[in-house]
């Protein structure tokens, strides 16, 4: 969507860079300080940009557009988080390699209905209980790869960057129609790698980590009423008019779910609002500070990317930044860049003339978001739950060199070679 955006001063990009740098480095270098002050950092930097836009540029249209996108984003992610938190899955048996593969595959499919956030929050605790007698870090890492990232590549509900694309005018079913070959290849390859690792560790019979809770008595499904609220959420995605009706329906579904869910279900899931509170605060800062960055990219994209960049440029560019930053604003940044390069008057024209580039942006944002803990919102949440369960997790750097480079990078290279190389 094009807006008449005044050319921002280059210094106005600084808050965006500072915030993303803080998100990448502060949790690693000053973890305790970041937990205490992340809200001040995010909202403070966002406020600087808002003041500049209001009093410096007198640009109200971008502010209104950004506010609408932020509210839509937070209500979808928050609604899915609350509703999935009201559903408890009990598991039975021991996590053998084939059963684990089936579990992850189901999670990859559910991610497109519940969102990666909803599916990850619904399934991570049953996943840990299923493998509690021999849980390893790789169980959590591949859960992040498959359920919290790759799995959500088929619908705008699946992953935040795709939902932002939907808000930009990408049709709902366009994603499924064009992304399914990449989804099928990526998920299949990761499941094969996981199976090989899981089979190897099972045969080695490494000493299991003591279970933090007793084994479940059998497969069970609690919180069935939340299926109704889930349907309300999914239906609301297709409501476009009047303004904020979609968000109102999502909020109503979340409130209804929270107050009708039995406390025992929330307790069994360890449900609390801290993860979604952190996401809402950080993204408030991101959405505010990225306004001048997106405007700059839209104005200068031809100079940066050239006049005819290939789809591979957008796949790798979006992907690499999505792995180091967060994939949702990265998606918007490259979507705006593509709009600036092509001069397309609207999203429909962009999809008509440069569908392969949009596809590269979409797949790159979703797939590369799995590479680090900061690449996608659910990655944070899953790691936090694993830490609560006393599962030894790799550090930020260990995740990259021990799992992302040897296991994830070959998959990303193969996807590029087959679909985006030319």
Notes on the structure:
- With 422 residues, this protein is mainly alpha-helical.
- The protein has one domain.
- Helices cover 72% and strands 1% of the residues.
- It has 17 helices and 2 strands.
- It has helices spanning 14-29, 31-56, 60-85, 97-130, 137-146, 160-167, 174-204, 226-236, 245-260, 263-269, 274-305, 311-324, 327-342, 347-353, 355-368, 377-388, 396-420; strands at residues 88-90, 220-222.
- Strands 1-2 form a two-stranded antiparallel sheet.
- Helix 1 (14-29) packs across helix 11 and helix 8 (226-236) runs antiparallel to helix 9.
- The two termini are 27 Å apart.
- Residues 211-216 have low confidence and may be disordered.
Order of helices and strands: HHHEHHHHEHHHHHHHHHH
Q: Determine the number of helices (DSSP H or I, runs of at least 4 residues).
A: 17
Query: Which stretches are poorly predicted, pLDDT < 50 over at least 5 residues?
Result: 211-216
Q: How many structural domains?
A: 1
Categorize the overall geometry: globular
Q: Give the averaged pLDDT, no decimals.
A: 87
The main pleated sheet reads as:
2 strands, antiparallel
First-residue to last-residue Cα separation: 27 Å
Structural class: mainly alpha
* Rg estimate, integer Å: 21 Å
Helix amount: over 70%
Strand content: under 5%
Total DSSP E strands: 2
In a few lines, what is going on in this structure?
The protein is 72% helix and 1% strand. It starts with 13 loop residues before the first helix and ends with a helix.
